């Protein structure tokens, strides 16, 4: 599903975030990305999500070389990629329901289907009773779960999550990991960046460790 060939990323200003990265994430594979703060985890996810572009090398997703996708093609590419990042990017003037429904509305889905699928996604993250609220009135962990519901509602074939359980207590973290595992069993590839090595080891999925921008193991 995802292939990196000798990928390097240098940010303007000279900071080298990734160097010589070769990586393969199989179709329907779920894996964790670990490494110290600044190791390059977020950068690696951003290259797959087309939030950043590599300075060197190739990123191939679903057989497509991302270098061939121009700016105009990015929204369409992202329709099937579920992005879960730290800044949840929620729309604070819309309800929780509207935030989660947005990807389906953009896709032009029928209203009845939007309602059914949005409610199902909210139910999965335990927020159905909050659907009429505004995100500003929710806790950090609840806002994080709204972001997760929005990322999975469109049934992406790839989920990229950056510290998705950073603000959640252990019980909720485990629940979110079970959600990812279920989506993975249903055929979605999942790549999760986390500092929580204990959680990764308890789950038994593949772990890709980054160290100063290079794949360490
Ligand atoms: N937009 C940017 N401009 C310049 N440098 C950046 C930018 N984003 C990240 N970097 C630098 O690139 C390196 C890798 O950062 P990245 O955020 O990918 O690491 P990370 O492993 O996700 O860290 P953390 O666990 O703290 O989130 C760091 O040295 C960081 O300072």
Task: Please provide a written account of the structure.
By secondary structure, the chain is α/β, with parallel strands linked by helices. It is built from seven helices and ten strands. The chain has helices spanning 41-48, 74-78, 96-106, 111-124, 140-152, 170-185, 197-203; strands spanning 2-10, 16-25, 30-34, 56-61, 64-65, 81-84, 158-162, 189-193, 206-211, 214-215. The strands form two sheets. A six-stranded mixed beta sheet has the order 6-7-8-3-9-10, with helices on both faces. Strands 2-1-4-5 form a four-stranded antiparallel beta sheet, covered by helices on one side. Helix 6 (170-185) links the parallel strand 7 (158-162) and strand 8 (189-193). Helix 3 (96-106) crosses helix 4. The longest helix has 16 residues, at 170-185. It starts with a strand and ends with a strand. The mean pLDDT is 92. Bound molecules: adenosine-5'-triphosphate (ATP). Adenosine-5'-triphosphate binds next to helix 1.
In short:
The chain has about 220 residues and is of the alpha/beta class.
Summarize this structure as a short list of keywords or feature phrases.
7 helices, 34% helix, globular, single chain, binds adenosine-5'-triphosphate, alpha/beta, 6-stranded mixed beta sheet, 217 residues, 4-stranded antiparallel beta sheet, 10 strands
């Amino acid at each position: 599903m995802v292939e990196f060939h000798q990928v390097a990323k240098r940010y303007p200003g000279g900071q080298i975030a990734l160097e010589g990265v070769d990586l393969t994430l199989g179709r329907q594979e779920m894996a964790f990305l670990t490494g110290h703060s600044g190791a390059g985890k977020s950068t690696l996810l951003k290259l797959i999500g087309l939030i950043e572009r590599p300075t060197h090398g190739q990123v191939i997703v679903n057989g497509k070389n991302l270098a061939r996708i121009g700016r105009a093609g990015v929204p369409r590419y992202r329709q099937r990629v579920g992005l879960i990042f730290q800044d949840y990017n929620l729309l604070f003037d819309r309800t929780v329901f509207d935030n989660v429904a947005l990807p389906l509305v953009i896709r032009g889905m029928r209203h009845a289907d939007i309602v059914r699928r949005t409610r199902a996604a909210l139910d999965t993250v335990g927020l159905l009773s909050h659907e009429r609220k505004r995100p500003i009135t929710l806790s950090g962990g609840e806002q994080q779960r709204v972001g997760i519901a929005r990322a999975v509602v469109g049934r992406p074939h790839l989920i990229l999550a950056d510290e998705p359980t950073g603000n959640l207590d252990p019980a909720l973290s485990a629940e979110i990991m079970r959600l990812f595992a279920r989506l993975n069993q249903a055929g979605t590839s999942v790549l999760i960046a986390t500092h929580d090595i204990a959680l990764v080891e308890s789950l038994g999925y593949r772990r890709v460790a980054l160290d100063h921008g290079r794949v360490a193991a």
